[in-house]
Amino acid sequence: MTTTTATKQYTLGVLHGDGIGPEIVPASVLIADAAIAAAGGSPVDWVRLPVGFEAIAELGEATPTSTLAALADTDGWLLGPHDSAAYPEPFRSELNPSGTIRKHFDLYANIRPAKAYEGRNAVVPGTDLVIMRENTEGFYADRSTYRGTGEFMPTPDIAIAMGIITRQACERIAREAFELAGRRRRKVTIVHKANVLKMTTGLFRDVCREVATDYPDIQVDDFHIDAITVHLVRRAHEFDVLVTENMFGDILSDLAGELAGSLGLAPSLNTSQERAMAQAAHGSAPDIAGQDRANPIAMILSTAMLLDWLGGRHEDPTMNAAARLIEQGVTATVTAGTCTTDMGGTVGCREFAEAVTSTITQR
Ligand SMILES: NC(=O)C1=CN([C@@H]2O[C@H](COP(=O)(O)OP(=O)(O)OC[C@H]3O[C@@H](n4cnc5c(N)ncnc54)[C@H](O)[C@@H]3O)[C@@H](O)[C@H]2O)C=CC1
Ligand SMILES: CC(C)CC(=O)C(=O)O
């Protein structure tokens, strides 16, 4: 008698975004389909939802209320980058799609790995680290739960930005960092600027240090944000997990991606305990949009992070296996010498994605 085990049927949102988004997001969906099939999972029910320029044209909102409502009914989603700096007013002055979605779903942890591929363009070969970025407050206070305390101009000649750091937000991001380090090389580096921003980033450092006492087997150190840039450029390969507030994490993760070989290979996952959103760490790259020159690795690996997260949340090893297949497919493709021009290769986005897909399907 043949028995078949039904695997969970997932519904995942697909938001292309702007610029290179419509190139890298569909490529990631195709690769995810191939990997899930190869791992024996049920086909995903993908739900296309508008955001960015597309949504402004169709619905008059950069992040439509209908998109937010539909996302709430999914198991997770892929968000492409948005070119919000180029939106017409009033959309440019509003909170951008990433900020709106992160805030709406309280996606407080932005997990941003940077991993170099052997022999491929890395500024610091051997880099294999993760920036754990607090995603809801700090100096991007427009996203915090404390509404109306972001930036403001009391007169046309004075602009003021407020930073907010709360014990609760520091504690939950610190725990994410220490838990992750426990599954990696057991080292956490706290990044702050407590010599100048004494109360805000001082609180961040101190709460992370307090949380560290619950993880005695994990090595901890801390650096000022300016100093850590120097250490990363010289010796990124020595770091494991770096935990920091929102804006420092945003900046440091671009640096770390480029040190690993290219900003185009830097993935990220935005999570809470209940939800997860795959999103490349980079922006919409308007300078190369529509030219088939984008490196899709960041979006592909972000998608793998989402599948891995789903596997953990639903105790579904097929999704973890699919995530591993995607990672292996990307590594095999890159180490075989196939990569986009930002990594010193010659292929376009489409050809790279096809190469990864055939590596997965032909194994
Ligand atoms: N999460 C998001 O959606 C983000 C959106 N943005 C938005 O993106 C737009 C452009 O911002 P920029 O400051 O120029 O940053 P960017 O990250 O879009 O581009 C910086 C540089 O990296 C290159 N690059 C980025 N991703 C690449 C990829 N996958 N493959 C190859 N090269 C890649 C670009 O060509 C450019 O030279 C702005 O409207 C900005 O607000 C910026 C950062 C994050
Ligand atoms: C969404 C961007 C405009 C800002 C950014 O880089 C980010 O918050 O990830």
From TrEMBL:
GO biological process, alphabetically ordered: isocitrate metabolic process; tricarboxylic acid cycle
Domain of life: Bacteria
Cross-referenced Pfam families: Iso_dh (PF00180)
EC number: 1.1.1.85
Transmembrane helix found in the keyword field: no
GO molecular function term, any single one: isocitrate dehydrogenase (NAD+) activity
Enzyme class: oxidoreductase
Protein name, per record: 3-isopropylmalate dehydrogenase
